[in-house]
Specification:
about 75% helix
Length: about 300
């Protein structure tokens, strides 16, 4: 006996089939039914047998729950609740897909939009917790190596903790490191970055000025000093620091990207174009060049030149 469904399953099947650019005939063939059967499902003349639902969902790339969620806010809310209870990746994917389909179909309510934001926020919090644990494990395992990758992991760890509102944890940690390792410029860099991320730009600047006197010609210190100067509106100082960073390590061009983006934001088009061109030239001259790496800089150049012509 065919199943009876409380919502418009037929519209969902038709919408998803068309989204996948699949004809009724190919869809029917994949399911082992006739094209006439699919036609009847999509017009609402009849419903598919309940035993076919797993195959239909798999063919359309959705969960069974998602088949029923596009026109049913309560079904979407249940998917959100289930993810909140389980934290399972598959449950997150099912809920996200249901909300995205409702948004695409134009049937999402205000509550749907709010709940989708809740879903994404909870996923971010969960992912951030996992990332923090992974960073801590990496730092513990690599504490004896003290290579560049080890310290770059610290940088990402600081950014994550500060994003989570735990800048004080970072500041205390790297205060202890600088006290224990006064001649380690990385320790000063990490402490300055912690203060900067925490919003204490004055202390970050003080630390960096002292570090640059003690450790001149340091790419990382110059780059961070440039970032700090830009945030303070000292744009010429920022450019000067970034140029010094590039001079210290011409194989690293993050500082050039920073300068190009800043000049563009300031409306200094010609200087921005020149900086983006330097970046393009660097990529072509570098033996590690890969196709596609110059696409973004070239897009900026074209946009800036087009804007200059209009002006």
């Amino acid at each position: 006996m065919p199943a009876v469904y409380p919502i418009r399953l037929h519209e969902q099947i038709a919408r998803l089939r068309k989204k996948h650019r699949m004809s009724q005939e190919k869809f029917a063939e994949a399911l082992g039914v006739s094209g006439q059967a699919v036609s009847k499902w999509e017009t609402g003349a009849c419903c598919p047998d309940i035993q076919l639902l797993p195959a239909i969902a798999a063919c359309l790339g959705v969960s069974i729950d998602a088949l029923f969620a596009a026109d049913d806010p309560a079904a979407r809310a249940r998917l959100l609740t289930r993810y909140e209870c389980t934290g399972d990746d598959a449950d997150f994917a099912a809920a996200a897909q249901a909300y995205e389909q409702a948004l695409e179909a134009g049937t999402a309510t205000l509550a749907d939009r709010r709940d989708y934001a809740v879903l994404l926020a909870r996923r971010s919090i969960s992912s951030a917790g996992g990332a923090e644990e992974m960073y801590e494990n990496i730092l513990c395992a690599a504490k004896d190596s003290r290579d560049e990758d080890y310290y770059r992991t610290h940088i990402q760890y600081i950014r994550l903790l500060c994003w989570r509102g735990r800048a004080d944890v970072c500041v205390r940690r790297y205060q202890r490191m600088t006290a224990a390792e006064p001649d380690n410029w990385w320790a000063v860099y990490l402490l300055a970055l912690s203060h900067m991320q925490a919003g204490d730009k004055g202390e970050a600047g003080r630390l960096l000025r002292g570090a640059l006197k003690r450790f001149p010609g340091n790419f990382y210190l110059y780059t961070l000093a440039g970032d700090l100067a830009e945030g303070a509106g000292a744009y010429e100082s920022a450019l000067s620091y970034w140029e010094k960073a590039y001079a210290d390590n011409p194989r690293q061009i993050a500082c050039l990207y920073n300068g190009a983006a800043m000049l563009e934001r300031l409306g200094r088009r010609r200087e921005a174009v020149e900086m983006w061109r330097r970046i393009v030239d660097w990529h072509h001259a570098n033996e590690l060049f890969r196709e596609g790496e110059t696409d973004m800089p070239l897009q900026h150049i074209r946009r800036l030149l087009a804007g200059e012509e209009k002006a």
